[in-house]
Each structure stands twice: as structure tokens, then as C-alpha cells.
Design goal:
two-stranded antiparallel ribbon; about 270 residues; 9 strands; alpha+beta; 2 domains; Heat Shock Protein 90; 5-stranded mixed beta sheet
Length: about 270
């Protein structure tokens, strides 16, 4: 997870000020466990539960949680494995008598290692329990952060912003760091790169999709330059899954659709609060 000065623009807008719900923490614990659902229906709050303490059998029909401790051990072992591969890659590149074939093989090996490492890290993120530290941000702050991030990530692509309605006094409860990461993944899912003729339009509106009002941020890409399907395959799918998971933990939705080969739209819905 990105920290410190390397945080994307949205995450730099502030740090949690304690303006949270009861605990300020949202955990991706199972939402459909029958016992928990029954307690909610009776007006009782279920006790806090650690992911490592949850034991669920496949017969119950509830997805089995992957224990955080096991994931940490897997991550540690993978780290050792990648360290050794990087070592041999450096060895091939630094040999005084290396041939061109050795150099090319080393570069391919290093790129393969890097891509696999990124994919596995994202995969672990999907299964690992996620905790969010919420803070209250105005609609203007959220929009400013996402627009700045889009300008940086799309690297000079023309972006226009249109805002519908008045947003004075309206806000959103967000975890800036996690939401920024989800937005970065979502942008990469829609397109890996944009061409010289591409342009982006961002529309800000209030949605009435559900009973409560939502902030809708629609990002429309025109004439995107598609990357290789092979390059996009698995990593893009896992990143999109992680992005949807993070937005869902904010109580929102993340959607993408395409209108032909030259038009794509990314939509983020976040619940509004006073």
C-alpha cells in the first residue's frame, strides 16, 4: 500500500481526523452470515470478529475466509522466492563475459518476475481482510483529488470536468488512501494507455439509483488506445476486483461499460452525507 510522500493526490488531501462512525473501521467480514443477519434484524449489533477467528464450512453456503496469518506466511515465502530470482537476474546482467543473449534473457526474466510479483501482491490484497479509516471530505475535495490523480495517471491527455448541481454542505465518508488506490486500479482497467487523439470527460452529478442519494463520478474516455490483451489479462482482472471491493466497503459501486471500440465509461458511486 502506498504511504508517505508517494501517496496519490486524493490521499494527500488529509489524514483521518476522527470523523468516523462508531469505530472508524470497516472490515470486509461476511455480510450474509445467517446469525449476523438475524442479529441485525433484531436490532442488535454483532460483536467484533477477527478474520482469523471465523470458521466457516463450505456446507453452510458462505464463502470460506482465507486466514490472515496464512496469507502473511505465503507473502513472506513469496518474498524470499522473488529475492532469489532478482539475485540471479542481477548476476546474469553483471557477468563480465556475458553475451547479448544473456542480457536479453536477464531483462525478460526481470520483467516476468516483476509482473508476477505485482499480480500476486494484488491477489493477496483481494483475499486479505481490509480495514478502512474513514474521514469526512467535502464533495469538492473528493472530486479535486480524483481529477488530479486522473491528470497525473493519464499523462497529458486532455480532461474536461462538468459539474451538475450544487454541492455546498455535501460530503462523503472515505478512506483517502484506499479510495485513491481503487481509482488508480479502475483507470488502468478501463485502459492501460491512451493515444494522442484521446480525450477524457469527467462528469459530477447526484445519482438517485438507490433510496439514499449518491455522488456519481463518471469518467468517459474517447478513442482509447488499447493495450495488448495478453498484457491486460490476469493482472487487470485482479486489480478491478480489488477496486470493486474497496468501493463496496465505502458503501458504493464501481461500474465500467463500453460503447463500441472507441468509447468507454467508468462510474463511481459513493453515498453522500451531510
Amino acid at each position: 500500500m502506498t504511504t508517505g510522500s508517494n501517496l496519490p493526490p486524493l490521499a494527500k488531501l488529509g489524514t483521518p481526523r476522527g470523523e468516523t462512525g462508531d469505530s472508524g473501521i470497516a472490515e470486509d467480514t461476511p455480510r450474509d452470515v445467517p446469525a449476523a443477519r438475524e442479529r441485525r434484524n433484531n436490532g442488535h449489533q454483532p460483536p467484533a470478529t477477527r478474520a482469523a477467528d471465523v470458521v466457516v464450512t463450505p456446507e453452510s453456503g458462505v464463502p470460506v475466509l482465507v486466514q490472515e496469518k496464512i496469507l502473511a506466511e505465503i507473502s513472506h515465502e513469496l518474498g524470499n522466492f522473488f529475492h532469489k530470482l532478482y539475485y540471479w537476474s542481477d548476476y546474469l546482467k553483471e557477468r563480465p563475459t556475458r553475451r547479448n543473449a544473456d542480457s536479453t534473457a536477464a531483462q525478460m526474466l526481470e520483467r516476468t518476475i516483476k509482473n508476477l510479483e505485482e499480480f500476486l501482491n494484488v491477489s493477496l490484497d483481494y483475499f486479505r481482510p481490509t480495514q478502512l479509516s474513514f474521514m469526512h471530505m467535502t464533495v469538492a475535495e473528493v472530486v479535486e483529488g480524483l481529477v488530479c490523480q486522473a491528470r497525473s495517471q493519464l499523462n497529458g491527455t486532455p480532461i474536461t470536468v462538468a459539474q451538475e448541481g450544487e454541492w455546498k454542505g455535501q460530503g462523503v465518508m472515505v478512506d483517502p488512501s484506499h479510495l485513491s488506490r481503487a481509482f488508480a486500479f479502475a483507470l488502468r482497467h478501463v485502459t492501460k494507455q491512451v493515444g494522442a487523439d484521446s480525450d477524457v470527460a469527467i462528469r459530477i452529478a447526484q445519482s438517485a439509483r438507490r433510496d439514499a442519494a449518491d455522488l456519481e463520478i463518471a469518467l468517459e474516455l474517447h478513442q482509447p488506445n488499447e493495450a495488448s490483451p495478453l498484457f491486460r489479462a490476469s493482472e487487470a482482472g485482479m486489480e478491478w476486483a480489488v477496486a470493486q471491493k474497496i468501493v463496496a466497503l465505502h458503501g458504493g459501486d464501481l461500474l465500467a461499460d463500453a460503447q463500441g471500440t472507441n468509447e468507454k465509461t467508468l462510474r463511481i458511486f459513493l453515498p453522500l452525507c451531510p
